[in-house]
Amino acid sequence: MRTPTNQDFSRTQDRLDGNDRPVFGPEIGEFTNTDERLAAAGDEDKELKTGTTTVGLSTEHGVVMATDMRASAGRMVSSKDVQKVEQIHPTGALTIAGSVSAAQSLIRSLRSETSLYETRRGKDMSMEALSTLTSNFLRSGAFLIVSPLLGGVDEDGAHVYSLDPLGGMMEEDYAVSGSGSQYALGVLEQEYENDLTMDEAKSVAAHAIQSAVERDLASGNGINVAVVTDEGVDITKHKEFESLL
């Protein structure tokens, strides 16, 4: 048997005394310069945050969803022509607020899952199932800093769901998300009625977005409107609000 040298013994003794890192490390939080890494991530997050205003309203005949068209990075307007509402289901759409890259990844994932569901079962996914799927995706943490609204129509009627970045989900008659939410919500509180026609709902949604654009620096540059019925999803772009009000 080889006789250990003093150097070998000292290293072994350090391990026994707990003075060396465990062989299965590092544990969570044990990476070097952890505080500096967290601070750097915090600074980067501040620059990458995007503001927006999105709204969703349910009616007896379908769902109307609307968003502004501005994307921002820190204090700079990074784009003036962003479509923040996308079709993800034959009769369902999703608005996005938050990280652009995470939102795009979420949209691709939901489109893939709804298509796979239809292929396997020969029918479209219900809005309840789609909202649960979206919530589970967000809860996984893979789509951090995304706060979407989900709207759609199925056999049970029209639905609007509000989802938070951690996967919390609530079905609402109307909902808002984004940095201009408080301005849009004030309009919806005053103008929303259960018996709105689709045209009236479009006007209310446009008024809500317009109100946010007037006061929220991160919202602006026009409006996207998605009309969702049992026949499908129709998304239009408007640089001016007058035609919708």
UniProtKB/TrEMBL annotation:
Q: Per the UniProt record, which EC number(s) apply here?
A: 3.4.25.1
Q: Describe its function.
A: Component of the proteasome core, a large protease complex with broad specificity involved in protein degradation.
Catalytic residue positions: T52
* GO molecular function terms noted in the UniProt entry: threonine-type endopeptidase activity
The entry's propeptide annotation covers: 1-51
The organism that produces this protein has a lineage beginning with:
Archaea, Methanobacteriati, Methanobacteriota, Stenosarchaea group, Halobacteria
Quote the PANTHER family the UniProt record gives: ATP-DEPENDENT PROTEASE SUBUNIT HSLV, METALLOPROTEASE TLDD
Q: Where is this region: Disordered?
A: 1-25
Per UniProt, the ranges with Polar residues bias are 1-10
Quaternary assembly: The 20S proteasome core is composed of 14 alpha and 14 beta subunits that assemble into four stacked heptameric rings, resulting in a barrel-shaped structure. The two inner rings, each composed of seven catalytic beta subunits, are sandwiched by two outer rings, each composed of seven alpha subunits. The catalytic chamber with the active sites is on the inside of the barrel. Has a gated structure, the ends of the cylinder being occluded by the N-termini of the alpha-subunits. Is capped at one or both ends by the proteasome regulatory ATPase, PAN.
Which locations, inside or outside the cell, does it occupy? Cytoplasm
One of the record's GO cellular component terms: cytoplasm
Q: Could you tell me the keywords of this UniProt record?
A: Autocatalytic cleavage, Cytoplasm, Hydrolase, Protease, Proteasome, Threonine protease, Zymogen
Q: Which family does it belong to?
A: Belongs to the peptidase T1B family.
The record, for Pfam families, names: Proteasome
> Which positions, given as ranges, span the membrane?
none
Question: Where is this chain compositionally biased, Basic and acidic residues type?
Answer: 11-20
Q: What is this protein called?
A: Proteasome subunit beta
Single GO biological process annotation from the record = proteasomal protein catabolic process
Activity regulation field: The formation of the proteasomal ATPase PAN-20S proteasome complex, via the docking of the C-termini of PAN into the intersubunit pockets in the alpha-rings, triggers opening of the gate for substrate entry. Interconversion between the open-gate and close-gate conformations leads to a dynamic regulation of the 20S proteasome proteolysis activity.
Which HAMAP family does its entry note? Answer: Proteasome_B_A
Q: Which reaction does it catalyse?
A: Cleavage of peptide bonds with very broad specificity
Where does the protein principally reside?
Answer: cytoplasm
